[in-house]
Design brief:
Keywords: Membrane, Transmembrane, Transmembrane helix. The chain has 1 helix and no strands. By secondary structure, the chain is mostly helical. It has one domain.
């Protein structure tokens, strides 16, 4: 019985870790791409990142 509890806790921890990695990856991809998306589609490249004070956010 105790072994089953520990096995279940291990599966839950593994699933939580995998879910966290996926969410972090998606969040990173969205945050990196959003500035370029804004520059092309929202601002139509009329301004530079410095003019919009976005130069510090891009790395």
């Amino acid at each position: 019985m105790i072994n089953q509890v520990f096995e279940l806790m291990g599966w839950i921890a593994g699933f939580a870790t995998l879910t966290g990695i996926v969410i972090a990856g998606v969040a990173r991809a969205v945050s990196r791409d959003s500035t370029q998306y804004d520059m092309v589609f929202l601002w139509n490249n009329r301004y530079t990142l410095e003019e919009l004070e976005l130069d510090g956010e891009r790395k």
